[in-house]
Amino acid sequence: MPSAGGPTRRAGGPRVLRVKVLLLENIHPVAAEAFRRAGLEVDTRSGSLAGSELIEALEGVSLLGIRSNTNISAETLDAGKDLLAVGCFCIGTNQVDLVAAAERGIAVFNAPFSNTRSVVELVLGEIIALARRLTEKTGRMHEGIWDKSAKGSHEIRGRTLGIVGYGNIGTQLSNMAEAVGLRVIFYDTADRLAHGNARRVGSLAELLAEADVVSLHVDGRPGNAGLFGAEQFAAMKDRAIFINASRGMVVDYDVLRENVLSGRIAGAAIDVFPVEPKAQGDTFESPLRGLDNVILTPHVGGSTLEAQEEIGHFVSTKLLGFVLGGGTALSVNLPEVAPPVPPGAYRMGYLHSSEPGVLANLNRMLADAGANVIGQALSTRGERGYVVTDTDRPIPDGVLTELNRAPQTVWLRFWEPSV
After folding, report:
1. Which domain holds residue 105?
2. How confident is the model at residue 68 (pLDDT cuts 50, 70, 90)?
3. End of a domain among 334, 351, 380?
4. The total number of structural domains that make up the chain
5. Which residues form the D-isomer specific 2-hydroxyacid dehydrogenase catalytic domain (predicted)?
């Protein structure tokens, strides 16, 4: 594996890169182990950080690992002067200003698939628990009350599950739900292939009118804020069940409370909230506290040991691929380029403004300097282009100086062959 070289920004030449990693929010130890095996310095923290504490902690940090409770703003990115990449050890990335990160050339990675199974198992278990009203049964048993009654308790077989958002989690939920006898319908604004016997419906209103259970699995894009409110709850079937394991800002929980208290909604399970406590043991406030047949969980849909280990492995691998070889596979904000490293190659990663002629100019300079290109890959995304070039010899200082002075240059990084 090539050894890492350092970034240059419009001036200066390559330097040796000393990589420090900061991991927040109890990221699985497998990630820290992977970084240490690669020779990187690692600092771990159990909770999230914010404001001046976060800015202070970023001093000298090249790779930052977070989960959902640490917000990374443009101001934070500016404070992290040595920051090369942010790893979101979770599915969502809405806690990071992705546009600001791309403008600054800071790559952002996440784990879009690693905790899918864990979320699906939680949701399926909640559907059964709510249909059988198990929360009330266990609560009364703990109070010493023997309440052996079938009132309000139902099997889920033959009932209709309506899935809103048919992505990675929605489709796997669809498959597992069918296996236990649920009929599945789904609604998604994107063109998604139906799995098994699931049936697409043409609108959210159509889904709500038909579903006995509504489960939300949409992403955190701004357009989904406030997606589910009074109008949508009114459109649901009487005595339906409602589940949200997607994003807290999607649902009006005050309206949900009203519908649960009135009996229109038979039960609900909520794992995500608009405002969530920052640290373990902090006070949790919600209008849904204290309601019968409402399951509240502290954003643990993906929090199984299996999922957290897989996320730790997946995201750390992407971050290491970026810092040790320039790969941006599955980056959520930079162009995706991840070519294999030819044996004995000298590699240069070049992030630049996406403008005509940049690649031609780069190759002209390399040819004039007598550097033979043995591998090259280019991709663009928005206003950024990224090209990884492998040569059979070190790129001459004159070429690097000229590239650094180019107005299109965001950064250059270099990797030499392993000794």
Report:
1. 6-115+304-334
2. confident
3. 334
4. 3
5. 21-333
Residue 247 designated active-site: yes
Give the start-end residues of each E strand in 247-289.
Answer: 265-270
| pTM for this entry | 0.81
* CATH number of the domain bearing residue 207: 3.40.50.720
In this structure, the dihedral spanned by the alpha carbons of residues 360, 362, 367 and 369, taken in order and rounded to 10 degrees, is 160
Tokens representing 150 are 């079938």
- Give the strands of the sheet with 107-109, arranged side by side: 41-44, 20-23, 63-66, 85-88, 107-109
Of the listed 276, 309, 402, 416, which one is catalytic? Answer: 276
Q: Is 1 among the domain residues? A: no
Q: Check residue 419 and give its pLDDT.
A: 56
**Residues sharing a CB contact under 8 Å with residue 63, sequence separation 6 or more, in sequence order:** 19, 20, 21, 22, 35, 40, 83, 84, 85, 86, 87, 319, 323
DSSP 250: G
Residues 361 and 330 placed together within one structural domain of the fold: no
Q: Give SS3 for 267.
A: strand
pLDDT tens, residue by residue, 207-256: 999 999 999 999 888 888 999 999 999 999 999 999 999 999 999 999 99
First-to-last CA distance in the chain?
Answer: 9
Marked catalytic residue, from 257, 299, 347, 352: 299
Same domain, 259 and 272: yes
Residues 6+ apart with CB under 8 A from 256: 233, 242, 265, 268, 270, 287, 288
For residue 409, what is the domain's CATH number? 3.30.70.260
Give tens-digit pLDDT for 288-327: 999 999 999 999 998 899 999 999 999 999 999 999 999 9
The reply to whether 117 belongs to the active site is no
Q: Are residues 126 and 261 located together in one domain of the fold?
A: yes
Identified catalytic residue from 28, 133, 159, 247: 247
Digit-coded pLDDT (tens) for 318-375: 999 999 999 999 999 999 998 998 899 999 999 999 999 999 999 999 999 999 999 9
Based on the fold, state whether residues 156 and 105 are members of the same structural domain: no
Same domain for 269 and 343: no
Same domain, 345 and 329: no
